[in-house]
Amino acid sequence: MYDIMHDRRSGQRERRQDRRAPFIAAVRTSVAGSSAITLGLTQNLSGTGLELLHPDVAEGRVSLRFELQDGGGPVELEGDVVSARPSGPGMQRAGVRFVGLSSAVEERLVRAAR
Q: Which domains are seen in the chain, by residue range?
């Protein structure tokens, strides 16, 4: 039987647990333990993570700050970079899984991803 959660092109199983929706927003990003802030761009969003286009991202913990279009102010949270791959000159495409979300922030993210 064919497993629809298996991507034959990469040979890896799909790790996403929630539906992601297209979501484009500027993201202020810093690596845990660093005060340096860089800008990235979200590509999609779910209640548990996002895809980030960024000039320099590696696996590890990151702090993120971005605006949702719900009028509730900026979202500030942390996430773990669980995958990163080149995406054009000088850019990386990274999968970020959120960690330690409050229920209020998670609810805002889930609504934004609908």
A: 19-112 (2.40.10.220)
